[in-house]
Amino acid sequence: MARSNKDAIYEATNWFVELTSGEATDADQKQWQRWLNASPENRHAWEQVEAITNCFMGLDSKTSITVLNRPIDTKDIKSQERRQVIKTLSLMLAAGSAGWYGYKQKPWYLLMSDYSTAVGEIKRLTLEDGSLLVLNTDTKVAIDFNDRARTIRLLQGEIYIETAQEQDRNYRPFSVVTDHGTVTALGTKFSTRLKSKHSSVSVYQDAVEVRPCDDLDNNVVVNAGELVTFNTAFSQQKKLIDRASMAWINGFIIADKMSLADFVDHLSRYHSGIIRCDPAVADLTISGAFPVNDINAALTSTSEVLSIRIERYTRYFVMIKPA
């Protein structure tokens, strides 16, 4: 089966991260060269990534990617007070979803987070059990690891997880809890996103089990390559995931003939302000791999390949219009 251009771009962005991390070995370089020479699609994808990253004004890709991938040891920064807040939360959860709903309406709800990211920031953490946790832009989570379970409460935003296999202790289930239900890992790599009316989970390896909080008997197993959206009452039909959707983990947006309107929606998640797209150019399409840590540069590079102009009224309000 023919590989899509998006798959090749996704692999190219992974190689870009690896080769600019400062940790690539001679063997990595040789493996990258074999990948590059394996197909015209790979070479074209690499040229696209290279062109985009080189055109970003003043962007030091190696430095930014190295900082992005630096792990943080949670053991050194978790406080006794924070653990107490999580214990209190666990007790409130025991009262049922209605109790939790009432609690989370309070203005100090989001202040209970253990870790958070600002708009435009992506953060990688190594949890105390060795699991990898990546927080996307504008995300907040609370961590509750005890002798019986490993639980992450997703308070806002989106996370990616690679669960660690615990070898020296009794198995503790690993779950992500959102306003709409619980996602339990079955030894896996997956991402979870929280929106106002629903949550979604994408599985990249192995499987997860999803249970809506108001119908715990209505569980669904989501396997690798699948995505499911759920609210408090039910889960929607499973869909196939787009591998490029996880490119944000490495600090990229991958577009493959994406409409300009959709592209702007993706960029807006990483911009502290408003980006508007004139309907007259909304259906124009864009392809490429775009780092998310310089949105203004991403817009400028887009204007060089599409017939559009970027009007910046303030640093917070941007309008995209026909050229």
TrEMBL record:
Residues 114-209 form the FecR protein domain. The keyword Membrane applies. Residues 11-51 form the FecR N-terminal domain. GO terms for molecular function: sigma factor antagonist activity. Keywords: Membrane, Transmembrane. It comes from the Bacteria. The keyword Membrane applies. This is Transmembrane sensor, putative. It comes from Methylophaga aminisulfidivorans MP. The lineage of its organism: Bacteria, Pseudomonadati, Pseudomonadota, Gammaproteobacteria, Thiotrichales.
